[in-house]
Write a structure and sequence with these properties.
Elements: E1 2-6, E2 11-12, E3 17-18, E4 23-24, E5 27-28, H1 29-37, E6 45-46, H2 53-56, E7 66-70, E8 73-75, H3 77-90, E9 93-99, H4 106-111, E10 121-123, E11 130-139, E12 147-152, E13 157-159, E14 178-180, E15 185-187, H5 191-216, H6 218-231, E16 242-244, E17 249-250, E18 255-257, E19 260-262, E20 267-268, E21 273-275, E22 278-279, E23 284-285, E24 290-292, E25 295-296, E26 301-302, E27 307-309, E28 312-313, E29 318-319, E30 324-326, E31 329-330, E32 335-336, E33 341-342, E34 350-351, E35 357-358, E36 363-365, E37 371-373, E38 382-383, E39 388-389, E40 394-395, E41 400-401, E42 406-407, E43 415-416, H7 431-436, E44 457-458
Parallel strand pairs: 1-6, 1-7, 9-12, 16-19, 17-20, 18-21, 19-22, 20-23, 21-24, 22-25, 23-26, 24-27, 25-28, 27-30, 28-31, 29-32, 31-38, 32-39, 33-40, 38-41, 39-42, 40-43
Antiparallel strand pairs: 2-3, 4-5, 6-44, 7-11, 8-15, 9-11, 10-11, 13-14, 34-35, 36-37
Helix pairs in contact: 5-6
Length: about 450
């Protein structure tokens, strides 16, 4: 089967890079695609930026089946396998679709907010439920205009990770519940989608599947129990639940609970607590750090007492001591100084129409820079690539700091209440700093104009 890639050249804020180059979990989105496809496809072709459906699909080879998708889509292997299996059974050219009604929960909650690419709407012929089309196609023998929609339900399950006082929850029953999908798909058009892909659809869903596997498969449960007896450990801390790469050093006093993966040549210091995380290669987690439901990409450095809760770090980032990140995304090669706090909750709520007060949901920017309600009552912030954030700042929920920004804590700017753009970077205030700081990630409209030529490259 051939693989054709439709490039999405739009830049995702605040990173000023296309989605395919951004780190999701511990690897870039393009590498994630390669991993998902590795056991399904044998080769591929690459389409240019200005790909048009009607004008280019006829170039797809007809000597064997082909798969076409937009490279800013994140999807798991379960979603891909289901779509391919159902498409093959139909024997027709097919396009993926997702249900959008409230029965699905995870797609309306995470996939649709802030997304601008799901423009085609319709109704599933079999069930009559509303759907939106996804830029993902299967062609058994070359291009044809007769395309069958294949609608996929996420089959999500509600899971709460803790219970909180009633005033923080919109619904006393839900208590900050997340909806973990059996089949996951996102269009990466905002830093919020990176958070969803890395954490909610990533490590959180992985933990849920791990628990379900133990619950419904006796052999897996017995294998885990037997490993705990042999290693004299609690079952979720055994090597069956905690996968560690070679040449990684872990202090005996560190507490690591699975499912957790730790890459090669890492150092986990004394007193560190890690619970259901994905950690890349060459990562240092020093004394007293706490990580829960988070992802840390390659070459990151966390000095003592840094804390991550449901956050995602891209490669080469430093999070200094006593800094707390909650539901945040931090870009590549950035430094977040000591004692910074990224808040994740609006202190002032709104009336519910019945005399009560509920938390206000948080707004964030889509790919056009427009503010939209994301439907979440707790959400952190985002820092772009190559940023330098000074010590002792407080960042309000949903705020972004653009790539290449330097911030100094001062009486005038210690609390970040709105997005910070490159033009507002503090390195502009001194001539010496302005010469030292080089911009590496300009905005899309500031880069050289792209050619409009359609290019095909054999993968």
């Amino acid at each position: 089967m051939y693989r054709y890639i439709l490039e999405d050249a739009r830049h995702v804020l605040p990173f000023n890079e296309p989605a395919s180059k951004l780190v999701i979990g511990t690897s870039t989105l393009s590498f994630h695609h390669d991993e998902v496809f590795s056991q399904v496809f044998k080769g591929g072709l690459k389409l240019g930026d200005s790909f048009k459906l009607a004008g280019q699909m006829h170039n797809i080879r007809d000597d064997e089946p082909s798969f076409v998708y937009r490279d800013s889509l994140w999807f798991d292997k379960e979603f891909l396998d289901t779509f391919i299996e159902r498409a093959k059974k139909s024997g027709k050219a097919c396009q993926a679709a997702i249900f959008t009604d409230e029965k699905v929960r995870s797609f309306p909650s995470y996939t649709l907010p802030l997304a601008t690419s799901f423009e085609t709407t319709g109704t599933d012929a079999a069930s009559g439920r509303p759907i939106v089309m996804v830029d993902m196609w299967y062609f058994p023998k070359g291009y044809t205009k007769d395309i069958l929609p294949i609608a996929i339900d996420s089959e999500s399950q509600p899971r709460g990770f803790y219970s909180v006082p009633d005033f923080m929850a919109q619904d006393k029953v839900e208590q900050l519940t997340h909806y973990l999908p059996k089949y996951g798909l996102l269009s990466i058009e905002s830093w919020v989608h990176i958070f969803y892909a890395s954490v909610i659809f990533g490590v959180f869903t992985r933990g849920y599947r791990f628990e379900e596997n133990i619950k419904h498969h006796n052999f897996t449960a017995l294998k885990l129990l037997w490993r705990g007896i042999i290693e004299q450990k609690q079952v979720l801390t055994t090597t069956e639940a905690v996968k560690v790469g070679k040449d990684t050093i872990i202090d005996p006093s560190a507490v690591i609970s699975g499912p957790t993966t730790i890459g090669e040549r890492c150092y986990i210091g004394p007193g560190a607590v890690i619970d259901n995380c994905a950690i890349g290669d060459d990562v240092t987690v020093s004394q007293g750090c706490q990580l829960m439901l988070s992802t840390v990409a390659n070459n990151c450095f966390l000095p003592f007492r840094a804390s991550l809760f449901m956050s995602s770090l891209m490669s080469g980032t430093i999070i200094a001591q006593n800094t707390c990140l909650q539901m945040c995304v931090i870009g590549r090669d950035s430094f977040v100084g000591a004692g910074n706090t990224f808040t994740d909750f609006n202190l002032i709520g709104e009336t519910d129409g019945r005399g009560g007060v509920v938390p206000r949901t948080i707004k964030a920017s889509n790919i056009r820079g427009e503010l939209e309600d994301v439907g979440q009552v707790v959400l952190g912030g985002a820092v772009g690539h190559n940023c330098r954030i000074g010590s002792g700042m407080i960042i309000f929920p949903g705020r972004m700091i653009e790539s290449d920004v330097t911030l100094f804590a001062s009486a005038q700017r210690r609390v970040i209440t709105r997005d910070v753009w490159y033009e507002e970077s503090d390195h502009h205030t001194t001539k010496v700093a302005e010469k030292l700081v080089q911009r590496q990630y300009p905005r899309q409209d500031e880069r050289d104009e792209r050619t409009d030529q359609h290019t095909w490259e054999r993968w």
